[in-house]
Design a protein that fits this description.
This is tRNA-dihydrouridine(20/20a) synthase. By secondary structure, the chain is an alpha/beta fold. It has 19 helices and eight strands. It folds into two domains: 239 residues, Alpha-Beta Barrel (TIM Barrel), CATH 3.20.20.70; 75 residues, Up-down Bundle (Four Helix Bundle (Hemerythrin (Met), subunit A)), CATH 1.20.120.
Amino acid sequence: MNSVPPSRRYCIAPMLDWTDRYYRRFARALTRHAWLYTEMVNTGALLHGDKMRHLRFDDIENPLALQLGGSAPGDLARCARIAQDWGYDEVNLNVGCPSERVQSGAFGACLMLEPDLVADCVKAMRDAVSIDVTVKHRIGIDKVESYDFVRDFVGQVAEAGCTTFIAHARNAILKGLSPKENREIPPLKYDFVHQLKRDFPALEIIINGGIADHAVGLAQLAHVDGVMVGREAYQNPYSLAEVDALYYGDHHAVPTREEAMRDLRGFVEAELASGTPLRFIARHVLGLFQGQHGARNWRRMLSDSKLLKDADWSLVEQALATVRPTELETAA
């Protein structure tokens, strides 16, 4: 039972192909309080596709947000109701993804050019559900460099009832850059996000982009209400073991890396029994021993297609055996 009320002081960003339910369950073995987000789900896929595939999660994952991609207020409202019925704590509207594939569907970062439509989408979702409706966005589009652009966008959408904004502190370049390049090339402008909090003190403002360690994240909390971390939380997952103490003041016993894996055993074996290949889960834990003796063996064993074929939990045990001595010495 969590002793700390849910809070978005530390969030793990929605990342396509990364923040699936296997990764989120793994993250919960390391942090009780970080706010988790799903991969982005297109409204059409949710309304007409396999809901179980897109929405299934374990209760332990809460607090958990479903991120939606779409621009039709009615469809978004229907999806928000579905999310609430399934037990999600938040519905987040993606107004930040710059990929051309997303633009062709008229959603993502290009929606920042249509604040009226975003406001209509937010109002429709808020009218449909009682859970939080939030917006994730960029600070500008293409060559728009003025702070006024993002200020006016947030102001207009806030009038529709949105009280939480997650701002990726970079512009979105809609043509000419890949999604990966869009996360790295446009310069970070943290001051724009800090100014949003000063201009809208009643709103919850969460900052995203380039937060590579806890020192940077904690420093941001002097200016905003929370931080959202992406690649660092995924590629160096053991950094999550410090989140509860640093961001939430919950100083429970921190699990060792081995204990975190053992926490997953029941989940993994249940998934294997239902037909899930071990590789679907193993790919998310490859960075667990980053910087530790034996990390290369850990990664090699749990990414080897021959070893993973028809593998069960015993392969995890074998991989742990290659790093266990150092882990136990560290714990001692």
